[in-house]
Design goal:
By secondary structure, this protein is an alpha+beta fold. The protein has eleven helices and nine strands. It has a four-stranded antiparallel beta sheet with strand order 2-3-7-6, with helices on one face. The structure holds flavin-adenine dinucleotide (FAD).
């Protein structure tokens, strides 16, 4: 749903100029330094990127899913590292508070998240629990008006910058499954929290992940999202459902960028006395990529509109995440191929994007987990 086409077009133009004038020119430096310069972060704040999904009453832009998807497609024409800094605050880090938080919890955190003053992270994965997220072992034991949290969270995006964690922990040790899990809002300054070293990753240099370790960390019971124990896994899954459309849009944006780069290169580069863009085998790679990006974009926008209409989009969101991330990997591979030897060299940038996008098939549910979600929903619907 697009609420005001004129305002949306103006906002997309602003994002597009930011991408062209600030983000793309600094991509290489960001990767070299493994950090996003402060002036760029400030501009992200000024444009309102940290508040894209926060409702207007809390100081954000309150974008619908369709609007958010369009912004992500535009923003991700620059390195996905930039999106990563706002991504957890706009998405998985804050959405639990927004979806299931009490009015007080929302009023407490959302205004500071919307301005980018506070960065939010989502802490679900553990050393022994990834795809099998319901098996987490981090414990939260009630003690008076507090819970005492112990455990380690792994690969947590933006943890080194986070001011707040949406943390999933087991409040009921008797229930080893999803029903024993609660979601907490944890101020990152709470005593008992320490961070591991930044992970050395395959790509996305400039975006940071690390372990988050909780040792006898005391959190007030009033910080349970929605003040109800045992609902944390449901909250996490709702957050991830929405996140899957978001990641689908991200994949479309980066794929469009890689295909643009490959097309420009194919038009400039000459072999056998002609542009390589005129060879039909190169054209096949361009055409396959174009068609697949178009398909993914249609899927993402359709799922987004359905969500905006209040439909249950669990299956569609998983389809978007699975198809768009796999598509993005294929487009990255073809783009490197079209660049030939230059595609393997750092100075052309395409090898960096190739490494960056590998992540999309892994986090927020691997491709195999999306397949399981889609097929399980199909079987359930057919046998209901
Ligand atoms: C850069 C990065 C950032 C991340 N950010 C966050 C974050 O902010 N917050 C957070 O909580 N987590 C985060 N994660 C964790 C991420 O979500 C997990 O890595 C992911 O869900 C996969 O879990 P795993 O790594 O434990 O792999 P595993 O679950 O061990 O999976 C390994 C392989 O087995 C397959 N597999 C597992 N189960 C099945 C099955 N039932 N059927 C078929 N195949 C199966 C998987 O598909 C995969 O191919 C991040 C990860 C990375 C790499």
């Amino acid at each position: 749903m697009i609420r005001d086409q004129e305002m949306m077009t103006a906002f997309l133009d602003t994002v597009s100029s930011f991408v062209r004038e600030d983000l793309i020119p600094s991509e290489e430096a960001v990767s070299e330094a493994d950090a996003i310069p402060e002036p760029i972060v400030k501009k992200m704040r000024d444009i309102g990127l940290f508040g894209l999904t926060v409702p207007e009453e809390f100081g954000g832009l309150g974008l619908t899913m369709e609007e958010e998807s369009l912004v992500m497609i535009e923003l991700c024409k620059a390195s996905p590292v930039f999106r990563s800094l706002i991504g957890t605050t706009v998405g998985i880090g804050s959405q639990g508070i927004l979806m299931d938080g009490t009015d007080e919890q929302k009023a407490d955190w959302l205004p500071r998240l919307a301005t980018g003053e506070v960065i939010a992270s989502f802490a679900l994965t553990e050393p022994g629990s990834g795809s099998d997220a319901a098996s987490i072992r981090t414990s939260a034991v009630r003690d008076g008006d507090d819970y005492v949290i112990n455990g380690t969270k792994r690969f947590i995006t933006n943890a080194p910058h986070a001011g707040v964690f949406t943390l999933m922990a087991r409040t009921n040790p008797e229930d080893k499954g999803a029903g024993g899990i609660s979601a907490f809002i944890v101020d990152a300054k709470t005593p008992g929290i320490s961070l591991g070293k930044n992970d050395k990753k395959m790509g996305q240099r400039g975006a940071h992940t690390c372990d988050v370790i909780f040792e006898d960390c005391r959190v007030p019971a009033s910080n349970i999202i929605g003040l109800k124990e045992g609902r944390g896994f449901k909250t996490a899954m709702k957050v991830l459902d929405k996140g899957r459309i978001h990641i689908g849009a991200v994949c479309v944006g980066v794929a469009e960028r890689m295909l643009d780069d490959a097309l420009n290169y194919a038009i400039e580069r000459k072999q056998f006395g002609q542009r390589i863009a005129d060879f039909q085998l190169v054209q096949a790679m361009l055409a396959d990529s174009k068609a697949e990006i178009y398909a993914a974009k249609c899927m993402v926008l359709d799922a987004a509109r359905r969500r905006d209409n209040g439909e249950d989009i669990s299956t569609e969101a998983a389809c978007c995440k699975m198809y768009a991330s796999e598509m993005c990997g294929r487009v990255a591979d073809r783009a490197v191929q079209i660049f030939g030897g230059a595609g393997y060299m750092a100075e052309y940038g395409i090898e960096r994007l190739y490494r960056d996008v590998r992540l999309f098939r892994i986090y927020e549910g691997t491709t195999q987990i999306q397949q399981i979600v889609i097929a399980r929903n199909m079987v359930r619907a057919a046998t209901a």
